[in-house]
Amino acid sequence: MDNKEEQDYVLQAHIEEAGYEDGNPKVRDMNILVRPGRLTGLIGPNGAGKSTTLKTILGLLPHSKAKIEFGGSTGKYAYVPEQPVFYETLTLWEHLGLAAAVYGIEETVFEQKADSLLDKFRMQEVRHHLPASFSKGMQQKMMLMIGFLTRPDVYIVDEPFIGLDPRATKDFLGLLEQERLRGAGVLMSTHVLDTAERICDDFILLSQGQVAASGSLQDIRDTSGLPEGTLFDCFDKLT
Question: Is the pTM of this model over 0.70?
């Protein structure tokens, strides 16, 4: 891959069809392009196919016809799932250390980054606690910290606002902005349309497993015929 291609996208996906059972696709005919430094929102209500789309991109579905390409300088990605995943016997700090070891982050670099993230998410006091004792919001913070620790070319984030309090949401969006400024792209699924309209550069609107519209907010407005419409208004009309 040459330098020009690296700068054109950090994720490119064409999904012909994908599902959990052979012959029963849940999503189909979908094209996704995430560019460096841009946040693309995968938008839709529960059941529209957002999580299925992300699992297809991650290669987690046994029944799919899809072509997935990761670009950027390293081709690395970080996945932050909707439901936190953790080891019962490892502390928060040990989870961060395990992620650093997997990604080959040097010890001194890891300690500096991890300390900074613990400060940012106000989790220093529980650094040596087991995540099973955390609230859902604290567990979600841990997943976000692991993702930010690795500094990939693209973040794939599934419903990040569930369980986060307003301050944690602000911290998350601030860190995401820093990562975008260094060139990382983001594909984020959400059904929180007012927040998505405020922070996303591009949108992919899903309805019943297919793309109802895509592009910038102005593109979505043009497609829906609502030149001054909110994202919610446009989505309501298109679906």
Answer: yes
